[in-house]
Every structure is written in C-alpha cells, then in structure tokens.
C-alpha cells in the first residue's frame, strides 16, 4: 500500500515536466520539426531531473516520518528499515513509470494493425517490452542506491545515479537503432543491479549461504544451553 | 462518509451519508447526557472509539473521555500508545479500504472499456434536464451549472428529508425506502447490466436461465445486505451495487455536468459533514445520541464487530434490523440513496450494541474497522469511469486518476486517525482526481504520446 504515495510523487513530477514541455512547445514554432525534436529532448531531460528531485523529496519525507515513528516507539528504533523503504520506493517509481510507458502500447497491441507498416521497425512491441523491463529494474536499483547515498551523504553516488538515468534516457533516443540502445541499457541495468546489491549489504558469501540453505539452528541451541547452566546452581 | 463505525446519516441523501468519512470515535456528546448517563456515554464513546481502528484500549479512552476528575496521567501515557496504535491500525485500515475501492473502480473501468452501452448517449435523467448539445461553449457551461444546481438541490432535499425521518423515528418508512431502492438496484439494474454484457460478447441466454440467475443474485443480495450474511459476501454485494450505480451515473450524466457535479458534491459533502447544522452531522449525532448503529445498507464496513457475551441481545436485534436502510428513493433517488445507503451499511452489519465491553478489548481491537459510505465508492468510480470513457482512449489518464483518488483516501484516513470524528471522504480525493484528470488529459498525454511515438523513455 505504500507504493501509492511514491507513485503519486512520480506522477506529480511527470505532471510538472509535461507542463514545462507543453509551455515550451506552445511558445515555440510548431512547424519546425528540428526544434520540436530538440524541445522533446529538453523535455525528457527536465523530466529525468524532476524525477530524481522528487525521489530526493520523498527521501526527506520518509526520514521525517521515520524519525517521528522512532520517537513514538518504545525502544527508539523505527519499525521500518531504511533499506526496505528504499527498495519499495524504487519499485514504486519503477512500476508507475513502466506502466505509464507501456500501457498504451499494450492496449494498442490488442487491436487490429500491422507493426511498422509505415517503415518503422517491426520490432516495436518487443523492444518496448524489454526497455520497459529494464527501466523498471533500473528504477528499483536507483532507489536503493539513492537512498543509501543520501543516508551516508555520499553525494558523488547521487550524481552518478542521476547521470546514469540521464544516460539511459538518452540512449533511448537512439531507437530504432536497437543494438546501440538496448545493448548498453542492459549492460547499465546489470551494473546498477550489482551496485545496488552491494550497497544493500549483499556479498558473494551471502548469495552462497542463501543458495545452500544451511540451517542455523545449531549455534542457537548451543547458546541456550550455555545460558541455562549457571542458573541451575 | 468514512466512519469508524458511526452510524452516519443514512437516509438522507444517499450522497451525504455515503460521502463522509466517519471515525468510529465520535466526539463525546456531553450535552445530551447528564450525570447518571455520563458513564454510559463515556462507555459508548469508548465503545465507539474501540470500533474505530485507531483507538486503543477502550478503558483508557473511556477514562480519557470521562475524566473530569479523570486520570490525566494515564491519559498522557496512553496517548503515546494511542498514537502508535493509531498509526499501526491506520495502515491496516488503509489497506482494508484500498481493496474494495480498487475493486469497484476496476469493475467500472472494465465495463466501460468493453461494453459500449455505457458510453452511448441515450438520453438524460430528469434530474439533469438541460441538454449539452448546444453550439456555444457559454451556453453549454450554463446548462451544466444549472444541471448541477438542480441535482445538488434534489440531493439536499432528500438528505434533509432523511434526517427528519430519522429524527422523528419513522423507521418503518426509512426501512421500506431502503428496501425498495436496493430491490431496484439488485434486480432491475443487474438485469440491464447482464443484458448488455451478453450483447457485447454475443452470448445467448434463454429467459428461464436468466430469471434463475437474476433471482438468485437479487435474493441473496437482499438477504446479505439487509439482514445477515457472511461479511465477505456483503462487502462483495455492496461493491457491485456501487459499481452498478456508478455506471448508471456515467451513462446518464452529460459530460460537463458530470464534472461540475463531482466538484459540487464534494463541496457539499464538506459542508454537510463539518458544519454544525449540516444534515449529515446531525444524523451522526442523532445516531450517537441514541446509540444506534447506522443503517447497514448505506455503509461499507471493513470489519465486523463481534459482541461475545453481550448482555443486551435486544439492542443488538434492534440494531441489525434498522441497519438496512437503503435509501430507496424512487427512480433516481433510488440510485442515489442506495449508494448512500450502502455506505452506511457496513456499520450496521456488526451486531453491535455499543455497550461497553471491557472484556472484549483484544477482540474489538482486531475487529474494529473503518466504515466508508457507499456514496464515496460511487463517486470515486464515477470519476475514474468518466476518465476512462472520455479521455481519448488513453489509459494513462485513468491510471493517474486512480492513483490520485487512492492518495486522497489515504490522506483522509490519516486525518481521520488524527481527528477521530466523522470526516467527509469526498473532497480531498475528488479534488486530486479532478486536478489529475484535467492535467493528465491536456498536458501529460501529448507529452507521453510524442515520447512513445519516438520510442523514448524517461
């Protein structure tokens, strides 16, 4: 349920960005295709920056709420971990951004039609699907890294996240030259994923432990018995 | 209305009742009680508080409520806990309300997108007599404003009528009204809906089967809503009724009138619930005064109150029989009232004589639920449905309105947890919904369309 406030923040950022784009389009010359394309690029860049700004704003909001909750609870710790919040935040951003990008395409794909009949690429749908998937994953990873960077005040990480978002968005401008856009985007996704994994505290050993599913009960049993013995006296 | 188990105004305007959020914790009404009954009132208050999701142990609240000589220390200590529990239960209630609202909207949007009938213009209701087929923009605007005024005044009149009926204890009349309206909804509108769906998918059904299906559906619905039934089934029926009502509104309200009506009704809701002389507020207070639950046919409740070992079975019986006041307005009123009524409904479902039940603390804390008026369901769905129907076939607008409405609901529930009294559920959500509808339709859609045509992603 906490996905919705985050999605709301993303929507507001999108709204502001489209407002800026709309105003700029109306103020400019409609006929000039080059200018329109340039304005589109400008609009996309503004939107990316606004999204990151709203992510930051949401982080601040969460920190405040977290502190409030921490003061309310008995032991002074907040009941929600920051990592979880970061993950959910990134996921929510990713879901809403992905859904907004792809739902109209999905709705159109049901109806009768031929893809690429006017000379566009016939792989439009499948590449859209892959791009959306990459974007959702990327948003999730960015969320984790972003929150962690804000928490530890590593601003170069922040800058790197914003730069990679801009880069990804920029790469999509190379569509339909799919080799140049899809490939690098997936490489970026993988790298960001690894980075987020490391940031969240994962490591190679953790993965191995998780995969081998070793029961941890033994050590605990020992501790209990160790505790009980002096009591018997 | 969102209520925490308060009986909200049920009869009157279905809209009114439906559209306010009430917290279970009604503020104490000391003016109606004097000395001897103060404790009872306090307990009732506590009980009501317990019914709310947000209050903590009734004992504490009862103490808090009644303490003249009170126990201020305990109060402050319990306040913290109360806040924490408020937040904890607040989150649970948010989820409990999100699901039905989402389901209702999904049903409405799915129907709008697939069944052509509900987007065709086949005339208007008598409550909106002015047509919008005029050539000039100004004339159209004027017509829609006039339509709104007529509709809102009808709603006000109905609400006041309902409050008067309730005040003068004409329970039989109210009962009959509610039953008539829910009858109409469950049978007639379901028949029309089923007919249209079958037509859309080109499925043939013979009359005997149709009769059997509709009869069973309607009869079980009547029993569930007005009498007893499993909670889930009752909730499902309420959702379906709200969806049917919303579909009727979407079909028969002309475009601009619909938007203006949505705006006007949220303003009206705000006033009716919060103003001291507002009809809804009076209804709530009267219900609290008499310690009666509000009609079950008008509210959606997310949880049922159990009264294990209640010492007053007769009150319980009386309560449950009263609760099913569907606002059975004739014709259109039926629609409205039913929707209103529905909101009221859930509350009464719980056989709850709200007597202090100190032994049931834990049980009550589990079972406390939030009540949301059915009118709220209906108008949320109308907004999202209209967005789906008229937004140039765009799903982004629908989604944006959906998120906006849910966020508004979230905020309203937060305010409910803070203020602990009946609150109107419509204003915040509808405002957000309207803002997002118009801005997404006009600003975001061209932006996203242009981006998508170049396959750009942001």
Task: Please describe the structure with a list of short key phrases separated by commas or semicolons.
heterodimer, A: 233 residues, mainly alpha, 8 helices, globular, B: 458 residues, five-stranded antiparallel beta sheet, 16 helices
What do these coordinates show?
Chain A is mainly α. Chain A has helices at residues 3-27, 33-72, 82-110, 124-152, 155-172, 178-199, 204-212, 217-232. Chain B is mainly α. Chain B has 16 helices and five strands. Chains A and B meet through helix 1, helix 2, helix 3, helix 4 and helix 5 of A and helix 4, helix 15 and helix 16 of B.
Question: In a few lines, what is going on in this structure?
Answer:
Chain A has helices spanning 3-27, 33-72, 82-110, 124-152, 155-172, 178-199, 204-212, 217-232. Chain A is built from eight helices and no strands. Chain A: InterPro entries: Aph-1 (IPR009294).
The count of helical stretches of chain B stands at 16
Structural class of chain B: mainly alpha
Average the pLDDT over all residues of chain B and give the rounded result.
71
On the 0-100 scale, what is the average pLDDT of chain A?
Answer: 80
Main sheet summary of chain A:
none
Chart the SSEs and their pairings.
The complex is a heterodimer of chains A (233) and B (458).
Chain A: H1 3-27, H2 33-72, H3 82-110, H4 124-152, H5 155-172, H6 178-199, H7 204-212, H8 217-232
Helix pairs in contact in A: 1-2, 1-3, 2-5, 3-4, 4-5, 4-6, 5-6
Chain B: E1 2-3, H1 14-19, E2 20-22, H2 35-51, H3 58-66, H4 72-114, H5 137-167, H6 171-201, H7 207-226, H8 231-252, H9 255-274, H10 279-289, E3 299-301, H11 313-322, H12 332-349, H13 361-367, E4 371-373, H14 374-390, H15 395-419, E5 423-424, H16 426-453
Antiparallel strand pairs in B: 1-4, 2-4, 2-5, 3-4
Helix pairs in contact in B: 2-3, 3-4, 4-8, 4-14, 4-15, 5-9, 5-10, 6-7, 6-12, 8-12, 8-14, 9-10, 9-14, 9-16, 12-14, 14-15, 14-16, 15-16
